[in-house]
Each structure stands twice: as C-alpha cells, then as structure tokens.
Amino acid sequence: MIRFENLTYIYYRGLPNQCVALDNICLEIKAGEFIGLIGPTGSGKSTLIRHMNGLLKPTVGRVLIELKEVVMKSTRFEVGMVFQYPEDQIFEQTVFKELVFGPRNMNLSESEIKKRIFEILDFVELPSEVLESSPFDLSGGQKRRLAIASVLIMKPKVLVLDEPTVGLDPVGKKSILQKIKQYHEKEKVTVVLASHDIEEIAENVNRIIVLDKARVKMDGSVAEVFSRADELIKIGLDVPKITKVFGKLKQMGYNTKLVYTLAQAQAEFARLLGQRE
Amino acid sequence: MIELKDVNFSYDSVKPVLNNINLQIKCGEFVAVVGANGSGKSTLAKHLNGLLVPASGDVVVIGINTKDATKSLAVKQNVGMVFQNPDNQLVSAIVEEDVAFALENLQVPHAEMKVRVEEILEKLGILECRYRSVEELSGGQKQRVAVAGVLAMRPRFMVLDEPTAMLDPQGRNDVMALLKKLNSECGISILLITHFMEEAALAERLIVLNDGNVILEGAPKQVFGEVELLHKSGLLLPQITRFCAELKLREGWGIVDEDECVVELVKILEGS
A51, A258, B20, B127: which is deepest, by most CB within 10 A? Predict the structure, then answer.
C-alpha cells in the first residue's frame, strides 16, 4: 500500500518564484491497483511521482510504502520508475550490461541475474541476439522496451510510469501497454500510469486520479471520473471520443449506458440494436 | 511549392532511410505525414528546409535547390521547422526575446521587429505572456512560443515534427486549431508529422511512409480505408473510425468526427 499523508511540495521555497506544486495531497493506493494519473501539464503529476521513490522530499507531510516512510533511497528497489523517454537514460555499451546494472546493484547472484535476463527479454519480446549489441542500434520501439525491461528486471513491487508511450507509433504504443498490463496481472504489482492519452487510460486502468492545480480534483473508477466530462474538459483534459458519441446518443433519448472503451461500445451498440428488434 | 524528385538518403550509406521519394507540397496545402517509428518521417522533414540534403535526387523549394549552399538562408526562411520538444528549440529566457531571435539574425529593423513580434503573439493568443520567463509556461504555451518564433520569419511553409506529442489534450487541441487557422487564414502551407491519427485526419492530404517509401497518399478518408496496410505500417485508425469500420457502415472507415459518427449510428438504430 502507498499512502500520501498531507503531502505538500513547494519548489523554490522562500524565493520570489516560489511555487506550490502539491497542496495537501491525501491518497491511498492499495497493493495491486492499476492507477491512471491524469492532469493538465503543470498540475503536479511528475512531482507526485517523484515522491514515490524519494527523489523528492516532502516539504510537509509524508509518503509511506507498506507503512515505511519513503526516505532517500529506501525504496529504490521496491519502486520501479520509468520516466518520459526512458531510452534517454540508456548509458551502457551493450544491452546485456544495461540489463544487469540494476540487479548487480541489488547484489543478486549472477545465476539469478542470468535467469532474469532471459525471462525479461522473452517478456518484452527482444531477441536474445541483441544482448551483445549496442542499445543504440535498436529501433525506437525496441529501445523503449529495453529501458522498461531494465526496470522490470529488478522486480519492483510498485511500477510507476510517466508517459511511457510518448513518441511511439500507435502499434508500438499498444504493444508497450499490453506488456505493462500483462506484467501487472502476472506479478500482481501496483502500477501507476501517468498519461495524457485518455484512451490509453480508459483501456487499461481500474482507478483514475485527476490532479489539477496541485490538488486531487477527482478520484474514482473509470466510469465515475469519465462521467464528469464537462469538468474534465474545463480543466484541459478530455474523455474518449467514443464516450462523447454515446453521450450524445443518450442526450438524444436513446437508452444507453456511457462507454469508455471500444469493446464496451461494441457491446452496448449491439444491445441497443437488439432492444429495437 | 516544395518538390522532391527521386530523393534518396542514408545516414551511414548502408541502410537507406529514404527510398526514391517523389512528392509535391503545394502552396496553401495542409499535408500530414504518418508512419511508424523509424519509417523516415523526421528525415524527410529535415530535407524540406535543407537541414539534410539528399544523397541523390533533388529537393526544390520555391525554385531553389536545397543543395545550393549559397541560398540556404532563403530556404530556411521560407520553410520554418517546429520540433517535438519546445525546450530544444527555445533559445531565450523571455518569451518576446525568443520570438525576436530569428528577426535579429535577419537584421530586421528594431521598430519593425517590435510590430511583428506583437502581431504574432497576439495572433497566437500569448500576448499576455510576452514578458514572462519561458520556463514558467505550460507545454502548450511553450509550443506556441516555438511556433511564434518560426512565424516571425514569415515563412511560406511550416514543417512540424510531432508538435503535440508532449502536450495535454487542451494543449493539443490549441496547437491543432492554431495550425488550421494559420493554414486557412494566412495561407501558410503546413506539413504535419504526427502519430495521432485524429490529427492526421484533419489534413487535406495524408502521406504514409513505411521503411523510407511512400506507400499511400490521398485524402484521409481514402487512406483510412486501407486498414491492413496501415496496421502493417505500425498505424492504427482512430478509435471511432475503427468502431464505425467494424459496424461496416457505408463509408464507415472515413468517419473521424463524433457528430458524423452519431448521425451514422442513429441511421442504423432507426433502420434507415
């Protein structure tokens, strides 16, 4: 469980450009949840995320993981962080060296590391032939998968991803998210996914937390949050287009539920057609 | 007009990145280029203002061959570039100074510079930010400053390489609305590179690149009909287009607009 207790964070405290990035955040995330974190640019998403593994220290309040307070490096191996453009963090000369960097810092045995390498390569669908090649010879999508693999290989209990699919083509996006979802289901880990891609959020998460102006604006199931479309749009966010389409049908008097994903839309439309006949 | 004639390019002279590309971008057009990562989109973009020159073939910008080094300034002035991350493109600390940067290099007189900067900031809806620090702006605002800096040179063409990738939905809508406005009201030709098919759908013409080849070209509605080919090229149709396509609506594949989708669904529900 992750708990944010009255978390406030202030950048440039005491300076003329002082800025409250998080204002008294109280949140509880249960083990195994898949959370979507959304909010307009500058709402505090990245600042919140950086508190989860001690990269930032609260100005006021505290962050607890499994009832332990997060201080500095205490949760380094428990919380896996994937930042925007994670391939920019790749620094080793070979794919193999890149992958063993984390596990060696954890002092895992070489045999364990080896086992994990093959597991993870298989999981992210990178061929084992790439192990000795330079990470920089990989394609964009492969580099992204390698960067994520180098976090997953440490088997973190909490996986935090800040816009993991930015800049990828649609098929690459979909495949990365499928991998993350599979990992979530297989390992029963907690996942926090920050994204601007509303459809990506709708298709994958169980719960959405909306940040706006340094505060938690909404917190609830996908259905609860997306049913407040007007408020979301007002703060610069959006709902999936398919949701808007069914919202309009409802307004026109059709007896339809709101939908958020393509699969739901198909089922609901079939139901509507059935009703008519 | 920008004309690409049999353009070939490779970074390492082993692996071709652009393969015999033949394209024309006419004045006043709004063209979108889509394709998977590594398909050659950004390489193509960099050929349009001479940042890269073809290994063989020619790129001719309003009559100037980009290989002619003596005229490279004229090419760059006419073809403005905006990249994905505005942080890589903004050079000054203060908004209006950033917009004036290119004008200073072009030795535009101070009085005129002032007028042009004001006019552009006004048009882009960021005049109130003129004295602010670039660092304080939101992503969408920064991207608008980047666009302003390019517009200040009064280019005839603008090439934008995934300009909305880092923006939130509002920022994305703002930038797209701005591009539409620049195209329709100011007659600036737009070439938009994007991974968002919803954005590509707003163009008049869509070009699909795959492994350095132009594999499809046409109106978005027409291109969106090639579902299989697009998928093989790393692309997926927008959500509602897929929804309509699977319902096998007449011309369903071309539907990208919510209202249009609602109309079609109602037709089915009412059995007409």
Answer: A51
Within a domain: B259: no
Among candidates A262, A202, A226, A238, which has minimal Cα distance to B261?
Answer: A262
Q: Is B185 exposed, middle or buried (0-12, 13-18, 19+ CB in 10 A)?
A: exposed
* Structure tokens given for B150: 């390019």
A166–B247 CB contact, under 8 Å = no
Whether residue A6 is found in the same domain as residue A68:
yes
Minimal Cα–Cα distance from A15 to chain B, Å? 14
CB contact under 8 A, B234 and A249: no
Q: What domain count does chain A have?
A: 3
Q: Three-class SS of residue A22?
A: strand
B272 band by pLDDT with thresholds 50, 70 and 90: low
DSSP state of A160: E
Write the single-letter amino acid at A31. A
What pLDDT sits at residue B175? 86
Domain count, chain B: 1
Residues of chain A neighbouring B258 (CB-CB closer than 8 A): 241, 244-245, 248
DSSP code string of B193-207:
E-S-HHHHTTSSEEE
Angle formed at CA B35 by CA B30 and CA B39, multiple of 5 degrees: 120
pLDDT digits (tens, 9 = 90+) for A187-204: 999 999 999 999 999 999
Residue B229 inside a domain? The answer is no
| Burial B39-54, CB ≥16 within 10 A → b, else e | bbbbbbbbbbbbbbbb
- Beta-carbon separation of B235 and A40 below 8 A: no
Say how many CB pairs under 8 Å bridge A and B.
107
* B76 part of a folded domain: yes
Q: What ipTM did this prediction achieve?
A: 0.77
pLDDT digits (tens, 9 = 90+) for B147-179: 899 988 889 999 999 988 878 888 888 889 989
| Residue ranges making up the domain that contains A229 | 1-78+157-170+184-233
Residues whose CB falls within 8 Å of the CB of residue B120, separated by 6 or more in sequence, listed in order: B99, B148, B151, B152
Residue B200 lies in a domain: yes
Is residue A259 exposed (0-12), middle (13-18) or buried (19+ Cβ within 10 Å)? Answer: buried
